Hints:
By secondary structure, chain A is mostly helical. Chain A has helices at 2-8, 14-63, 76-82.
Amino acid sequence: MIVVTLAELPALPLHTAGKYVAGAYIVLFALVLIYVAIMAIRLSRIERELGELLACAREGELSAGPGERPAGPGERTAAAGAGTQPDPAVPAVCPPGQDDVAQPESTLA
Amino acid sequence: MERSSQPQAGLIKRGSRARGETPAYSKGLRTLSISTVIAMAVSLSLVFFYAPLEAEQGFLQKIFYLHVPLAIVALCGFVLGGLLAIAHLRTRDPRWDYRSYVVIHMSLIFAVGTLITGSIWAKGSWGHWWVWSEPTLVSFLIVFLLYATYQPLRFAIEDPERQARYASVFAITAGAFVPLNFIAVRLSTAYLHPRVLGSTSNLPGSMALTFLVSLAAMSLLFATLCKYELTAKHTRAQVRALRRRLEGQAEARRAPRSAAPSLQHVTAMTAAPPPGGRTTGQR
């Protein structure tokens, strides 16, 4: 079916100005592709940051005692100093994310 | 930073009222994306398999269906950015500045596409990549260079509130310049560059239909990319606000300097004050 359809279609005169037309349409394709790649990088960064935040939130719940309000990662040091021993495997505070590092968004945007 | 405290307090108030009503920029994104893909596919099919070859330029004229819609959408985007900036200055709502920024940003990308495809067309048609005596080309380059200063202007201003205001004034002024520039070029005497608007009726029906479908597809692509950009930036701001909330220091760390709007309304809505803590507006 596809072969028949393609056979019915008129042939494109690519031998004359084909390279210019192809170049122009490739430019649009490349622009969209670059944009999609940038969006993929952004998405992976957001996913990584969300994972870090989720880990921080879980750690906050673990460090809080029964009936206590789950402490935020920023409050964890004080809570640990009051009674429980801090887990050495867990950093004292949530690590700063990409957004907290001075980085102009315009470089990626 | 002294003058920024008052508008920020307003933001908090507005954010508190709208808590739980965070704008969902991703609403309708799927439908829009599917529509764009379909429209682009139909457009390309019409361009290559339906529209007849032009008598003078032949196959090279197929660039017309890409280059002209790109230019029209880019210029309309610049004007739209100005209109959104007017809304920002009228309401002082940072969301309008946010939309204006994204629309102008995307228009700039489309303008790059216009310049590149135009150069390719010029090379194939006239034998030169660029013709300085052609007013349409030069005027579009001037508009492009004008808007190329938009991001550096934003980045040069540290205070987010002032940044948004100055950027809005720039967007309005430059947005008003775009149609004036367009009219001035059309009134000029040189008609080397092919005329499109105003002579569309001279196009055969099949060519006019293909052109209009291409224009619609390009507009949909523009709208989709803008929506993607809005959603991505909004999501990133939400994650940033959530991080501050989890760290219990909603306003201890200043946001890094950026040309992009600070999206304080997102922070205000998401980062509720911790027990006994202060709100951003109480600085």
